[in-house]
Every structure is written in C-alpha cells, then in structure tokens.
Amino acid sequence: MKIFRNAAAASIAAIVMHTSFAAGPAQEQFIPSLVYRTGPYAPNGVPLADGFADYIKLVNSRGGVNGVKLTFEECETGYATDRGVECYERLKDKYGGASMFQPMATGITFALTEKAPGDKIPLITSGLGRSESADGGVFKWNFPLVGTYWVAADILIQHIAKKEGGLDKLKGKKIVFLYHDSPFGKEPIPVLEERARMHGFQLTLLPVPHPGVEQKSVWLQIRQSRPDYVLNWGWGVMNSTALKEAQATGYPRDRIYGVWWAGAEPDTKEVGEGAKGYNALALQHGAEPQAQVIQDILKQVYAKGGGAGPRDVVGQVLYVRGVTAAMLAVEGVRTAQERFGKGKHVTGEQVRWALENLNLTQAKLDALGFKGVMRPVSTSCFDHMGASWARIQTWDGAKWVFTSDWYQADEQLLKPMVKAAADKYAAEKKITRRSPQDCQS
Amino acid sequence: MFYRDNGELKTSYGADAQIFALAQERWAFIAFMVAAFAVVPLVADAYWLRAVLIPFLVLSLAAVGLNILVGYCGQISLGAGAFMGIGAYAAYNLHVRIPGMPLVLSLAGGGLAATLAGMVFGIPSLRVRGLYLAVATLAAQFFSDWAFLRLGWLSNDSSSGSVTVSGLEAFGVRLDTPQAIYVFCLAVVTVLGLAAKNLVRGAAGRQWMAIRDMDVAASVIGVNPVMAKLSAFAVSSFLIGSAGALWGFMHLGSWEPSAFSIDRSFQLLFMVIIGGLGSIAGGFMGAAFIVLVPLALNRLLPIAGDALGMPFSTAAASHAESMLFGALIVWFLIVEPHGLARLWSLARQRARLWPFAHGAGA
What we know:
Chain A is an alpha/beta fold and 441 residues long. Helix content of chain A is 39%, strand content 17%. In chain A, strand 9 (229-233), helix 8 and strand 10 form a beta-alpha-beta unit.
C-alpha cells in the first residue's frame, strides 16, 4: 500500500510525494510488466501484454508459486526508451523489490542493461535485445532466453538454403534485408554478412525509418532489383505496411521471410488474402489456440470474467508469446524458491541464479500446459539463452500454420561471434569475465 | 510589507545592477540554492532524483538555451532535438575515442560541436524569418536524424547503432549514485544558467531583443544582424548541446538516435512557450511543467479512477494523460499567453505591494 500526500503548488503541477512500505503483505512476489498499449507498436504490444497478464492471473488462481502470490503491475512505456527507464525506476523497489524486468523493447533493453546490474535485478529479454548477452560470462544479469536475433538470422538462412537445395546453392542469390532502422533492426546484420561471405549470396541492406510507414521507395528498389528473397525485420505497423507495399509492387509474398516479431496476426490480418504465403519465424511457438495452457486460461481466467483483453486474441501468436514470457518469469521464481526457500519471497539476485540454472524439461513444460508449444530450455552460467530452436510458419490467408521442421541455430558459427562481441563489450566497460567460482553463488 | 526595498541603498554600480538587487530576493535565492545542493540529495529518494529531478535539470538547461534563441532573439527553431543529439554524440565520441578525457571537457566539447552546427544551420536566419526559418531548422532536425542513423562512425561503429557510457567520474568523484549525478547536473546547470542570465542582461541580450522586436530598426541603429543572429544561434546551441550531452550521459546512460527525434524538439518548444518566452526563469518553469505534469497525471489518474469507481488501464491512463496535457497547454495559453514566468512575476509584484492592493501612483 502506498501513502500519497498531495500538496498543490501555486502554478506548477501538484507535487506528489509518496512513501512506500518496505515490505507489503508477508509473502508476495512482484512481477512488473513494461508494456506498450499506446503508440505505433501498440497493435503488437497489446496481445503481448494481455498474454503476460493472463498467465500471471492463471498462476495466482492456482495459489501462486508454492503459496506465494504474484503481485503484478503494468507500466506504459510507449516503446520509448526514456519512459521505459522511468518505469524501471518507478517499479524496481515496489512491493518488496521487482523479481526481474522484461523490457520487451530492444532500445529499453540497452538502457536497462546498464542499470540492472547495479540494482541487482535480472533482465529477461526473450527473443530480443543484445545477441551477445547470451554469453553469461560477461552479461551476468541479461537472459535472452529461448532465442536471440543472431539465432533468428541464422535459422532463416538455413531454411532458405534448405529450400534452394543446400547451402552451396545460395551462391549468386540475391537476398534483401529490409529492416527497422533501430538497434532492433540492425542486430542481425553481422550474422547475415558473415553468412553472405561464407556462401556467396548478395546481401542488400535496406533500412526503413521509424515507425515504418514510409516504405514506398524501398519497395520500388526491391521491385527493380528483383531479389530472390526478402527478409523482413520489422515490428508494429512496419510489417503490415511492408506486406501492403509488397502486394502493390507485385513481389511474391511467399518469398518474404519475417523474424519472429514480424509474424503475427496484427501484421497480416489487415492485408488478409494479400499476405497469403508470407512466412515468418516462430519463436518455438506459433498461434496455439488448442494448447493446454490456453485452454486453462480460458477456463480459469476468462470464464470468470478476469481476462486482460478481448477473448478472440487469446491463443494468437503474440498472446502466446506473452504467456511464454510470463511462464519463464514464473519458473525463474519457482526455481529460485527451490534453492532458497519454498514458499518464501525471493530477491532479484536469487532469481538471477535461478534463471542461470533453469532446467525446464519437456515433462515439466507439458505439466505446465506447454506440450507441443515449447521445447526444453536449459540455461547455464555461460549460456544464458538456454535453447536455440525455431520453426517457420506461414500465413494461409486466415491463420498462421507451421510449414517447416524444427531448426536449431548453428552453434559453430554463432558461439565464437557471441564470445567475440561479448569480449568487446567487456573491454569497453572494463568488466572481467566471470570465473567458474562465481557461477556457484 | 516584508518585500520592500526600504533602507536598501546601493553604494556601487555593481550592487545596483546585480541580478537580485533586492536583499530579500538575494537571500531567498541563496537559501534555495543551498537547499538544492545540500538538502535535496539527502532527503529525496532515488526515484525522485533519477526520474524527476535529473531530467528536469537537464531539460531546463535545454529550455533556457532555446529560450535565448526563440524568446530573446525571436528566431523560431524546430531543430533543438537535433542540437541536443549533436551535443550528445560529440561528447560520446570525445569520451570514447580519447582515452582519459575528463568528463567536463567531453561535455564542453559536445557543446562546442553543437555550437558549430547551430551556427551553420543558423545561416538561413540571415535571409528568412518566422515560419520559413522554422522549416529550415526542421531540416536540421531531419538531417541529424539521418546522420545519427547512417553515419556509423558517430556511434563508434557499434553494430546496433546504440551507444552506452558508463564509469563516469568528475573531479575525482565517481558519478554512480543518483545523488552524485544530481549534484553534478545541478552544478553544471547553475553555472551555465547564471552565464546565460548575465548574457541576456548585457549588450548581447539587448541586441538579441532588438532583433526580435524590430530587426530592420535594429540594423538601422547599428546592431549587426548577422552577428546578433549567429551569436544567438551559437549561444543557444551551446546550451542545448551541453544539455543533450548531459541527457545522454547522466540520465539515459545508453541511447539511440530516436532519443533526439522531432518529438524532443517539440517538447523543448512547448517548455519555452509554457514557461514564458524571453525569460530565463521561464525555461526552468516550463521544464518543470512538462516533466512533472505527465508523471503526476500518470500516477494520479489511476488513483482518481479507482476513487470514482472507474478503473483506468495503463493504456487509458496514457491516452488520458496526452489529452489532459494538451488541454492544459491550450488552457494555459488562453489564460496566460506569456507563460508561467509572467504569472510568477505578477505574483512577485503583488507580494511586493502586500498588504496593499496597489502602490502609490499606480
């Protein structure tokens, strides 16, 4: 509970002071949620936020984590870095301290990567953020669980090669990389350039300025150059605009491959039949309306009138993404409790240890209701990613369906690149790599 | 009764011409500064320092800079965000590329880079005025947006285009606690703010105001319009560039080009308009309004909603915040178009006459 004293100043806005209790009700665990329900990325941010909120409600309806209820609060960032930082500062000490933060935005991730270690709060950046933060030896507090952008780029190239009949068949092909001109969009470029060097395909980089509605000129370029494939690295309104422009210029949609943030219903629903054939990565899961966990949410949360958003969004791609993000957070808390005290509040440091020692076997995932949705995740001190699986899904005009087998990122290629980038960061920030002894804490 | 100048006789020109000629004002200002330096860091918690006071200080420095250009010299500028960005990136490059570079020199270097850019983009002001100049400065904004994104060497060739600074220290003190950062920012803002105030009280300020009021008449009586306008751009851009460097280094720690987009330019312009054109104190008041009101609305709206039985979701609070904020700006400009500074000076005038309603001969 907060006590607010409101003293109105003469002409400037009322000065608000608050004091917060150091500890709230005895056993509660605070899970903050940084969301963007407004702004140009809201169409994609809303289902993410809803899925996250609903899973937390589901866990609480089952009694929380070993009896400890999860306190949940959202803070609106609008995908802006400074608002994200303000939300972080506002929430980090509330309700006994935040267990972790999930920035859900690459820009905010970069800013919080600097602040979180000082405040001893781990960051889960599942499927986004800095790819080199998979190296837990340098990035002690970052957890890009389940996938990074380098994994995504690598798997897309693998899939395209498979379509062509082999990695050697890529020689001479033209691949356009259409990306959101921001740290999010620029992340995979090193891997794509490395692969282009290795296999001899021609990579063209076409940036699209924020927020992504100005794509007429890049699609004219694409029409002129007639590439074999277009990789779409967009988010929010950029994706639907790209598909509309592709339709307008007549570029075959089945040759466009999007990242896992560019393959969801808000991107294709508007375009409908015009986006038919568009492919995107699935960060392990796709649209899973039949999954056990979704059914549980509908029964336990929506049937009782407590859903965060409209019912028809439940089970869609980004909704499930939000659910899996919340699941990883809750399992982090549960694993922390198993070591540091079942049924007790755990601190950010303890959650960090747990995220580093996460061992979600298929049996555990199935029991949670994620059968067929997620593959096992197993992190370690030096590997903060835990899994690098993905699939390709395709829009059939009305829904997303899986159209490929499971792919795994090429560790031979990525591991040295991750280590080199992490070493560069460590040298810049004057951080020493963690020793094996440090992993025990 | 308490605010009169009875008995305060000045014996030197210096005493007569000082910023706070009245002893009461001088003492109040000194007390305020002592409180700001000594009391606030001890009393305020980390959230207040990090999320409210530090952004307020940095943005008020930028607002003072923009006020010099727009309020004192009358040259409308929509490129303030660009100059903040140029200051930030220049300071970053100096900090990162020159080993052992003192922080204050990096920040000053950022300011100087912004000064040069400001003078270059201020050249159109010698030929065009008003709305056309606004468009020319908008070009500065878009050019900078492009440059920060496309010129890799500005971000030290980072693959993601995002830059970070850490491990800052000034005068041997590590700037890693909110209190240290706050005191550093306060010191910088105090020094530069006093410098700006003295500039506008002197010959330079009078020339700027002459250009603002009637530039043709000013040039007739001997004010060199080229010198006046370019010097306004130069001084203004130095302050804005230093503020940009502080914003990136002290507040954000890690930023990408979108932190200095056109939204930032508009935000600064709103601060200057709300605070009061042609007033140094107005820059501070406008910054306080723009920083505090959205935060206060963001915190209070859900509480008010709960009290009235209408729960506010975060999205609804965010939308309501934008609407209320816009409505407040419009209402404000209707009630007091000269801004908060005018309200403040009206209040001071009434206080000086209190308990009387009007003075002799008024």
